Amino acid sequence: MHVAALTLRGGWLSGAAREEAVDEPRAAQRGDRGAYAALVRRHQRAVHGLCYRLLGASDEARDAAQEAFVRAWERLGTFDASQQFGPWVMRIAHNVAIDRLRRRGRVVLQDEPQAGSAETDPAGALDLERAIAALPPSWRAAVILVYVQGRPVREAAGILEAPEGTVLTWLHRARHALRERLEP
Amino acid sequence: MTRRERDERAEQRILARLANLGDPEPPSDLVDEVMREVALRHLGSAREIALILAASAVALAAIATAIPVAPALADWLSTFGRIALLAKVGTTIAGTLLSGWAAAAFGLLLLGFTVTLLGLKGVAR
């Protein structure tokens, strides 16, 4: 199973996968750009996904994801290699996306649901995307990290730099808002 | 079925849809673009270091030339004056050519040269 999937679906890593996931950030810290490319490849989907759903526009999401990875490269010296790289780079991506959101002040939603969605009904997927986009950014980020990407609440709290209790409150309110919008 | 039960079921359906939504496919060239930018930043750092070395070599050559050629100038300037003059020249060069940590490193290097030269001059006397 792919390491990203293991990391996203509960934070568990097999021995080999953990070794790979720990070695690559260390190699990247020593300036190994090949190792960093592997890290980018592994985490690009989650990072781009968070940026896409926070920013709503695919061009800006792409720019934000790129900026996040470049910023992460520049700050690799501050990364604790005994920790997981994924949540660390996701925190950077969240900050980049929130900065851009503040500058812009609104969300632009694509007319078509993006490829990758397992929703069988395109109209349903678009409704869901619209409902997510209508949430406040903090609730939206929590929903993406926990419900869409399947991260534990503790990890999401670390990424969002908020207490776990606060994240749970955001999720509760987001569930209520989504229910009101999608199943009134 | 109570309203609460209906709401809970509705939430469960929404959570199932969210779990199935997944992340959109990232742009196919995202990794290449990131690594291109990383390479450019790396090149930028290498260029700054090269610039520091070149500027330091020029400064060293200028100081080495000026000391034997213009001893009067060296005598004319007080110790403090020399440091101030070199610091001013160094800051101007660094501020014009470099930025951030590179300027600071260049300034420190120049200060090191100055202190060394002053030390050597003191020893010579």
How would you briefly describe this protein structure?
With 184 residues, chain A is mostly helical.
| Main pleated sheet of chain B | none
Distance between the termini of chain A: 39 Å
Q: Helical residue percent of chain B? A: over 70%
Number of helices of chain A: 9
What would you say this structure looks like, in words?
The complex is a heterodimer of chains A (184) and B (125). Chain A is mainly alpha-helical. In chain A, 72% of the residues lie in helices and 0% in strands. Chain A has helices spanning 3-8, 15-29, 33-55, 58-74, 85-104, 122-133, 137-148, 153-160, 164-182. Chain B has 125 residues and is mainly α. Chain B is built from 5 helices and no strands. The mean pLDDT of chain B is 71. The A-B interface holds A 33, 36-37, 40-41, 44-50, 52, 58, 62, 65-66, 69-70, 73-74, 114-119, 124-125, 128-129, 143, 147-150, 175, 178-179, 182-183 and B 7, 10-11, 13-15, 17-27, 30-31, 33-35, 37-39, 41-42.
What's the layout of helices and strands?
The complex is a heterodimer of chains A (184) and B (125).
Chain A: H1 3-8, H2 15-29, H3 33-55, H4 58-74, H5 85-104, H6 122-133, H7 137-148, H8 153-160, H9 164-182
Helix pairs in contact in A: 2-3, 3-4, 3-5, 3-7, 4-5, 5-8, 6-9, 7-8, 7-9, 8-9
Chain B: H1 3-21, H2 30-69, H3 71-76, H4 79-97, H5 101-124
List keywords for this structure.
heterodimer, A: mainly alpha, 72% helix, globular, disordered N terminus, B: 125 residues, mainly alpha, 86% helix, 0% strand
